[in-house]
Design brief:
The protein is of the alpha+beta class. It has one domain: Jelly Rolls (Sandwich). The chain has 8 helices and 16 strands. The strands form 4 sheets. An 8-stranded mixed beta sheet has the order 1-2-10-7-12-5-4-3. A hairpin with a 5-residue loop joins strand 8 (226-229) and strand 9. Helix 1 (41-51) packs across helix 4 and helix 2 (64-78) packs across helix 4. The radius of gyration is 20 Å and the shape is globular. One of its GO terms (biological process) is response to light stimulus. Belongs to the iron/ascorbate-dependent oxidoreductase family. GA2OX subfamily. GO terms for molecular function: gibberellin 2-beta-dioxygenase activity; L-ascorbic acid binding; metal ion binding. It comes from Nicotiana tabacum. It catalyses: gibberellin A1 + 2-oxoglutarate + O2 = gibberellin A8 + succinate + CO2.
């Protein structure tokens, strides 16, 4: 998929905001904000996952120092000369990548570092980081440990909110020693108006897509760009928040809730004024884990909307698709229903 089919670079006066305001040329909404210390948080999270597949969490346990330490190390890396950064690549799929997103022709206005992670520390030998790499890896592992805990706590609150037993039925997938989770640092340098006019295909920082894993935990610096797509197809911008985290429902969680939760499509627009740095933890299950609607959640007579698959099968399938493809479409069931005496397939 070509990441952008038409020029859509927007300056700060045209980018949609998430304040409760409607105008003639764009639409905005309030992004759900969940206080992790609120006794009712589990119910608010469940509602946000059903309506948006996306929400912001505040009052989390990750110290500001952990966030700023990793951001500082990431900035140092992305400020290196190109020849030095290239030593950490090419991404295959882990390591340093530049503009290319995956292996199927998708490109973006981006450079990134992608690491594999599980319940153990990310190995310093996994990617060659120039300079004082020890400080870099310490910052990465401290940060990943913190956001993994957020992801697991959110999943346990989801289980409570949906009255699923046991409470750790979802979080144990991420805490498993064979968890196929990963972590990515994204850097988008400013895109000037001249570059926007001469290179239309690079106007999108990261093209629209869903995350295939169970759950993602995202933060960025104070630069706009992130947008989510509502169920009616409307794109809305998400105001950045330096010290809060955004939670994204992944394809696997949509399947495990039998479509109750929604894997939200999202993208990043190039910014014409400032560089954007984002950090994303993708919480994935073990490759052998079976992905199917949870039996404890299914109501009497409810049919599964999806064929059962392993995470390894779905991951392999996802790598063969373009960024914006509907990956779950290959695993959706044709369900026979009876209506007015006729059998219909949906």
């Amino acid at each position: 998929m070509v990441v952008s089919s038409k020029p859509i670079l927007e300056n700060s006066s045209h980018i949609k905001t998430c304040k409760p305001h409607v105008s003639d040329d764009h639409f905005s909404i309030d992004i759900p904000v969940i206080d992790m210390l609120d006794p009712q948080a589990k119910f608010h999270i469940t509602k946000a996952c059903q309506e948006f597949g996306f929400f912001k969490v505040v009052n989390h346990d990750v110290p500001k120092e952990t966030i700023t330490k990793l951001e500082g190390e990431a900035v140092k890396f992305f400020d290196l000369p190109q020849c030095e950064k290239d030593k950490a690549g090419p991404a295959n799929p882990f390591g340093y990548g530049n503009k290319r997103i995956g292996t199927n022709g998708d490109v973006g206005w981006i450079e990134y570092l992608l690491f594999s992670t599980n319940s153990e520390l990310i190995s310093e030998k996994s990617v060659n980081i120039p300079g004082n790499s020890h400080l870099f890896w310490c910052a990465v592992n401290e940060y990943v440990s913190g956001v993994r805990n957020i992801a697991c706590l959110v999943l346990e609150m989801i289980a409570e909110g949906l009255k699923i037993e046991p409470k750790n039925v979802l979080s144990k997938l991420l805490r498993d020693q064979k968890s196929d989770s990963c972590f990515r640092l994204n850097h988008y340098r400013p895109c000037t108006q001249l570059e926007a006019l001469s290179g239309g295909r690079n106007l999108i920082g990261f093209g629209e897509h869903t995350d295939p894993q169970v759950i993602s935990v995202l933060r960025s610096n104070n630069t706009t760009g992130l947008q989510i797509c509502l169920k009616d197809g409307t794109w809305v911008s998400v105001p950045p928040d330096h010290y809060s985290f955004f939670i994204i429902v992944g394809d696997s969680l949509q399947v495990m809730t039998n479509g109750r939760f929604w894997s939200v499509r999202h993208r990043v627009l190039a910014n014409s004024l400032k560089s954007r740095l984002s950090m994303i933890y993708f919480g994935g299950p073990p490759l052998s884990a079976k992905i199917a609607p949870l039996s404890s959640l299914m109501e009497a007579g409810e049919e599964s909307l999806y064929e059962e698959f392993t995470w390894g099968e779905y991951k392999k399938s996802a790598y063969l698709t373009r960024l914006g493809d509907n990956r779950l479409g290959l695993f959706e069931k044709k369900i026979k229903i009876r209506q007015y005496g006729h059998n219909l397939l949906i």
